[in-house]
């Protein structure tokens, strides 16, 4: 199957990837080619096969709900591109909330 | 004795004995490696960050431990770490612009364990960006070159770790293997590399690529050294819910000289078109050698091998697209500001990630997207069941499976960068083990036109001991691991 430019546009938006026009064109062709190779899987009848998402038999590994040492707030924020008053700082997501106003 | 041309050539096991006998100090051993790094890095570029000050401090501490008799097999041993493992005292970048300058607030569990055992960290090694690649050419900070021929790639993604051990810029190294990223570069660089069983080694602090496949493992110049390093990092960790609780055996205990009673499976599916004759010949010779050591060769079939590559190129990008969603320019790493949050995400990720990473995020997002999820992701997970079953059936008949590590020797830089699928084919023999979660080791088995060829031994889940023992017997009988790249320009010792 072959990808359209609209497909590439749609997937790039889902993935939050800003791509140049040239990148989109190249990816359309490359992904079409790679998906062609992947199409080999359709030769196999897997109707009655259950999927394996993970190979070791562990399931729902739980731990006791105990408080233990963890990163301090300052450590957690140390790599943030922008932090203020103990929070990660980002652009407003909702319209109408102005700078500095509690959301 | 602190003559670097001698002490950097040693195995870690031998260096440890000489440290104990005070033939040289840990500080001298570390300084010799730092000098070696300075000498050959311009030609090889195995490291992204050399941790000279940290290493010297650790070496001095190791010398105190040695004086006090408080040692482990790794006390004072200089080790390189793939720059995808978090370290508090050096940057961790995953060779990506998006993490340039990032300082982890915590150590990976494997790093913490090595620290506790008194190891010395020489630096962080180059890799394909986020471990996505087979040549280390996808690093945002320039490629690593193969110490055997600097016009060729070292393999990847852990190419810096493999090259550092091959070029004697480190005695041991850690890498990560999602589809062959330890074994394939080990093969291309003529060193030993091992991917342990999925869950054998904690991934806490390993920057995640494909979480159902990633595993950390050792690089070394002998199987014994690889076994020592594996023993030092293996075991359960409550910080990684996929890590296994099985006891860690003494991996050296089963070492032996002959292979009587060992059944070695040879799968017809691992003889493929496009194999280089020199590789084919060396690997067949190695398999015959196993037989001459007493092993019984058994022909087996792994009928779904041809589907493993396609299964991988759905599964790994799908998981990567989810894992890399965390790089949003908010919590850490690069942020390229735009008027809206959405545009900030898109510009940060569009400019912060390199082309292979973007390709895989796109492929994975597509495979998981509404309308395609069943056709790609679920289909691949079903085929994965068949691949796993192939191995389970084979291991009812044999103890280990012998195969080539790669279909070719190291290829020239730039040779495969224009065609992603050609690059993906470099991992055709290593990917099945990741899909099944089983352990695999790559050991040097000869040369083709002066470039290393590698034998891969695959084992049952959690049976690292057997493949290590077989690899050790083979290595001991042949000595291929003792060949070093001494004639390459810039590397002449």
Which characteristics define this entry?
heterodimer; A: 103 residues; Histone, subunit A; 2 strands; 32% helix; flat; B: 493 residues; alpha/beta; Amidase signature (AS) enzymes; eleven-stranded mixed β-sheet; 11 strands; globular
Strand arrangement, largest sheet of chain B? Answer: 1-3-2-4-6-5-10-11-9-7-8
Low-confidence sequence ranges of chain A: none
CATH class of the domain at 5-41 in chain A: Mainly Alpha
Stated plainly, the CATH topology of the domain at 4-261 and 398-482 in chain B is called Amidase signature (AS) enzymes
Taken in chain order, the helices and strands of chain A follow as: HHHEE
Return the string of H and E elements of chain B: HHHEHEHEHEHEEHEHEHHHHEHHEEH
Biggest interface, CB < 8 A: A-B, 52 and 68 residues
CATH H-tier superfamily of the domain at 4-261 and 398-482 in chain B: Amidase signature (AS) domain
Helix coverage percent of residues of chain A? 25-40%
Which fold name corresponds to the CATH topology of the domain at 5-41 in chain A?
Answer: Histone, subunit A
Q: Bin the strand percentage of chain A.
A: under 5%
Globular, elongated, flat, extended or rod-shaped: what is the shape of chain A? flat
Number of helices of chain B: 16
Largest sheet of chain B: 11 strands, mixed
Sequence of strands across the biggest β-sheet of chain A = 1-2
Amino-to-carboxy terminus distance of chain B: 17 Å
The share of residues in helices of chain B is: 25-40%
> What's the shape of chain B?
globular
Q: Round the Cα radius of gyration of chain A to an integer and report it.
A: 23 Å
Q: What do you see in this structure?
A:
The complex is a heterodimer of chains A (103) and B (493). Chain A is built from three helices and two strands; from the N terminus they run αααββ. Chain A is mainly alpha-helical and 103 residues long. Chain A has a domain at 5-41: Histone, subunit A. In chain A, strands 1-2 form a two-stranded antiparallel sheet. In chain A, helix 1 packs across helix 2. Chain A is flat. The mean pLDDT of chain A is 90. With 493 residues, chain B is α/β, with parallel strands linked by helices. Chain B has a domain at 4-261 and 398-482: Amidase signature (AS) domain (Amidase signature (AS) enzymes). Chain B has helices spanning 4-7, 12-20, 26-44, 52-68, 109-116, 159-166, 183-189, 223-233, 277-292, 308-323, 341-352, 355-368, 374-394, 420-424, 431-436, 464-478; strands spanning 47-50, 78-82, 120-125, 172-176, 192-195, 216-220, 263-267, 296-300, 400-404, 440-448, 451-459. In chain B, helix 9 links the parallel strand 7 (263-267) and strand 8 (296-300).
């Amino acid at each position: 199957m072959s990808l359209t430019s609209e497909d590439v546009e749609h997937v790039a938006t889902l993935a939050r990837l800003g791509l140049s026009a040239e990148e989109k064109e190249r990816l359309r062709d490359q992904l079409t080619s790679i998906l062609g190779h992947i199409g080999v899987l359709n030769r196999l009848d897997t109707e009655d096969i259950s999927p394996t998402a993970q190979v070791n038999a562990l399931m729902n590994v739980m731990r006791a709900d105990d408080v233990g040492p963890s990163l301090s707030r300052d450590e957690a924020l140390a790599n943030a591109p922008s932090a203020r008053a103990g929070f990660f700082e980002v652009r407003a997501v909702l319209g109408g909330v102005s700078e500095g106003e509690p959301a | 004795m602190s003559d670097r041309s001698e002490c950097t050539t040693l195995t870690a096991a031998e260096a440890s004995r000489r440290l104990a006998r005070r033939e040289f100090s840990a500080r001298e051993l570390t300084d010799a490696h730092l000098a070696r790094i300075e000498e050959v890095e311009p030609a090889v570029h195995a490291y992204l960050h050399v941790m000279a000050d940290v290493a010297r401090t650790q070496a001095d501490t190791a010398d105190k431990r040695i004086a006090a008799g408080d040692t482990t097999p790794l006390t004072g041993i200089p080790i390189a770490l793939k720059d995808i493992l978090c370290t508090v005292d050096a940057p961790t970048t995953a060779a990506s612009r998006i993490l340039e300058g990032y300082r982890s607030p915590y150590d990976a569990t494997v790093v913490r364990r090595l620290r506790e055992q008194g190891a010395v960290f020489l630096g962080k090694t180059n890799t394909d960006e986020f471990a996505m690649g087979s040549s280390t050419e996808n690093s945002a900070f320039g490629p690593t070159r193969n110490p055997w021929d600097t016009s060729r790639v070292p393999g990847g993604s852990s190419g810096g770790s493999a090259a550092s051990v091959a070029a004697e810029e480190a005695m041991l190294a850690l890498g990560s293997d999602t589809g062959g990223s330890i074994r394939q570069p080990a093969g291309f660089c003529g060193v030993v590399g091992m991917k342990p069983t999925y869950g054998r080694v904690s991934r806490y602090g390993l920057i995640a690529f494909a979480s159902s496949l990633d595993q950390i493992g050792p690089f070394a110049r002998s199987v014994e050294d690889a076994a020592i390093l594996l023993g030092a990092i293996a075991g359960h960790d409550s910080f990684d819910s996929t890590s296994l609780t099985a006891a860690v055996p003494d991996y050296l205990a089963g070492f032996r000289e002959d292979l009587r009673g060992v059944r070695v499976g040879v799968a017809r599916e691992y003889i493929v078109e496009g194999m280089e004759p020199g590789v084919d010949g060396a690997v067949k010779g190695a398999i015959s050698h196993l037989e001459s050591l007493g092993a019984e060769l058994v022909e087996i079939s792994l009928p779904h091998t041809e589907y493993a590559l396609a299964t991988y190129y759905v599964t790994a990008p799908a998981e990567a697209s989810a894992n890399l969603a965390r790089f949003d320019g908010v919590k850490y790493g690069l942020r390229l500001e735009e008027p809206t949050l959405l545009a900030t995400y898109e510009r940060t990720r569009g400019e912060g990630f390199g082309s292979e990473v973007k390709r895989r995020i796109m492929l994975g997002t597509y495979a998981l997207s509404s309308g395609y999820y069943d056709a790609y992701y679920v289909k691949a997970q079903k085929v994965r069941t068949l691949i796993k079953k192939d191995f389970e059936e084979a291991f009812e008949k044999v103890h280990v499976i012998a195969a080539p590590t790669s279909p070719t020797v190291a290829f020239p830089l730039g040779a495969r960068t224009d065609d992603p699928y050609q690059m993906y084919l470099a991992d055709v023999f290593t990917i099945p083990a990741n899909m099944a979660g089983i352990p695999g080791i790559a050991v040097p088995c000869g040369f083709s036109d002066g470039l290393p060829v590698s034998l891969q031994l695959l084992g049952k889940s959690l049976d690292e001991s057997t493949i290590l023992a077989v690899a050790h017997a083979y290595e001991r009988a042949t000595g291929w691991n003792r060949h070093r790249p001494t004639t390459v320009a810039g590397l002449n010792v």
